[in-house]
Amino acid sequence: MNFKLKNDTFLRALLRQPTEYTPLWMMRQAGRFLPEYRATRARAGSFLGLCKNPDFATEVTMQPLDRYPLDAAILFSDILTVPDAMGLGLYFADGEGPKFERPLRDEAAIMALQVPDIDKTLRYVTDAVSQIRKTLDGRVPLIGFSGSPFTLSCYMVEGGGSDDYARVKTLMYNEPKLMHHILEVTTQAVIAYLNAQIEAGAQAVMIFDSWGGVLSHSAYHEFSLPYTQRIVEGLIKEKDGVRIPNVVFTKGGGLWIDSIAATGCDAIGLDWTMDIGVARQKVGNKVALQGNLDPAVLFANPNAIRNEVEKVLSSYGYGSGHVFNLGHGISQHTNPEHVAAMVAAVHELSRKYH
Ligand SMILES: Cc1c2[nH]c(c1CCC(=O)O)Cc1[nH]c(c(CCC(=O)O)c1C)Cc1[nH]c(c(CCC(=O)O)c1C)Cc1[nH]c(c(C)c1CCC(=O)O)C2
């Protein structure tokens, strides 16, 4: 039991301890679907302006919690702050998503990569974590996060988003040693970064392997999973006598959940493509599961949303170990009232399973 928390349902579910209902939060819960987020972003001038100012980061982290009775808060930041701290120069071109000024395009750039001094380069993140914890005042737990080394490498090599991952996959197949070097340095950076978030007050951490699912079976097991496993092994597991659970989310990773469970993680994030009941059978009592409603369900009407929520809950079935979530980030085109319908449905309909 976490004595400082008024609602620790989320942490108990991650540790597969009994709960009264299924807790929930949403990936990208602080974001453009909320008018209040768009207003704060306009005041800050840009998305990075929000991330780099702890007052703004705290304000937008709290917005979804003030609107909905969610069971967890997530640090407002981005996975790409780590490569930015490594000197790649993150920027957001209007309407084009993230980009790097200095992507990794040759051997010299790759061999020059270094683990950044987190205290110096990412202080704005750990400051935001402490400030959010204070503002939360024990309402719900705060989740810290990072990208997985493979997913970060995709952006670092491509220089931005990609449809085919041609550059990073070419490097991976032509020059596996160079690819492993990027992954090695990034792994060390991510371990230091997540542990700094935990020291600053993050009560659970999540690793986003958002693009792991674009890999072949063998490439996933060579270039993504072992590095995720090293992170899981390197994380601070307990602070002030309280467990700090971790979640590994691999979008498109449903085929590999047995290998993911074997990393020793506490929970696996599922996208919407896999039946969560089948996933539960496969992983047994090893890990908790987080997910897995298709974010597009929120475009439908509240009745349809309720039906789809019930399907996920009943497929998971009786007992603890499920954190309800979307299978990926919420769309910016979502109607905020539909989110209210989903939150109410999860809290109400899940009680019969506990
Ligand atoms: C791949 C990835 C990124 N960032 C992230 C991932 C992994 C998760 C995933 O798979 O979605 C992680 C992330 N990004 C953001 C959060 C905040 C916490 C949360 O509310 O979940 C988290 C956890 C805020 C954000 N990160 C970004 C926004 C939108 C920024 C804005 O224009 O206001 C937010 C709220 C920008 C971003 N950042 C990134 C992209 C591809 C984009 C553009 C996306 C888009 O335009 O919808 C990289």
From TrEMBL:
It catalyses: uroporphyrinogen III + 4 H(+) = coproporphyrinogen III + 4 CO2. Catalyzes the decarboxylation of four acetate groups of uroporphyrinogen-III to yield coproporphyrinogen-III. Its main location: cytoplasm. Substrate binds at R28, Q29, A30, G31, R32, D78, Y155, S210, H328. SUPFAM superfamilies: UROD/MetE-like (SSF51726). InterPro entries: UROD/MetE-like_sf, Uroporphyrinogen_deCO2ase_HemE, Uroporphyrinogen_deCOase. It comes from Gallionella capsiferriformans (strain ES-2). Belongs to the uroporphyrinogen decarboxylase family. This is Uroporphyrinogen decarboxylase. Homodimer. PANTHER family: METHYLTETRAHYDROFOLATE:HOMOCYSTEINE METHYLTRANSFERASE RELATED, UROPORPHYRINOGEN DECARBOXYLASE. The record marks D78 as: Transition state stabilizer. Pathway: Porphyrin-containing compound metabolism; protoporphyrin-IX biosynthesis; coproporphyrinogen-III from 5-aminolevulinate: step 4/4. GO terms for molecular function: uroporphyrinogen decarboxylase activity.
